[in-house]
Amino acid sequence: MILVVLFQLYGLLLGVFGDDTVPVMEGDSLTLHTNTKTKQQEKIKWFFDHTRIAQINGDLSFICADVQCEDGDERFRNRLKLDHQTGSLTITNTTFTDEGDYQLQIIGSSSNSVKIFNIIVHDASTADSEEKKSKSVKEGESVTLNCQIKNPNDVKWYFNDLVIAEITGDQSKTCRGVRCEDGDERFRDRLKLDHQNGSLTIINTKSTDAGVYKLQINSSSFSIQRNHSISIISEESFSVTDWTLYLCVAIGILVAIVLMLIGLKGWRRRRSNHRQNYV
Fold first, then answer.
1. Which DSSP state fits 84?
2. Least enclosed by CB within 10 Å: which of 19, 63, 144, 273?
3. How many Å separate Cα 54 from the centre of its chain?
4. pLDDT at 2 over 60
5. TM spans, by residue (predicted)?
């Protein structure tokens, strides 16, 4: 721990220490970028809570991630991926226990650098209805899939692995629906893209809109991958369900009335027999 603190102070003196705050939702896949390529004489180390969770040497003589590292953390078992070309770290299926500071150390033959990423994990299960990843909507209604990134420069929305909407720093390349290079005709004139936060709205939803929508958020420091699921409830399914429910209730009431009448008839018969015997 003391060595880590000293190294951070050294980074401050060199003027290469910086930090980024990265908000993600539970279940997202997050990649933290090094913005470099591994070199022969270079070492890239990742720390979380002062514990080394990943490392790669430029000559690939040593590579480890999560519990593979000598002092690895069990919480990341099978959820860390290390890019052998850049040393970038990917955390899959993020959870609350992943929240905190991640320290990147790049140790070279002539210079060293330290960078801090502050990860904030939001609870997807208690999110507002507008922020939930799974939504059900009646056919014909509108639904909004949230991105919640202010003034995004690189956002892509995918459906069936096809780009259906995109925001880039170059306004000429911003697109939605059939205007995208591999756009889908099913969304013609039914997509709205919010350029302030990257959210995607589908209007006049159809049964063919049901499925998983993938969101890709890119920046120079990090990338986020998020899945949104939409289920479309058709009006037909509503009417069938309603009629089935009404029919079951009606049958139940009818059976109850029949049983009451049979019971009442039996009671009267027993009462009549009792009076005759008494006489």
1. T
2. 273
3. 24
4. no
5. 243-264
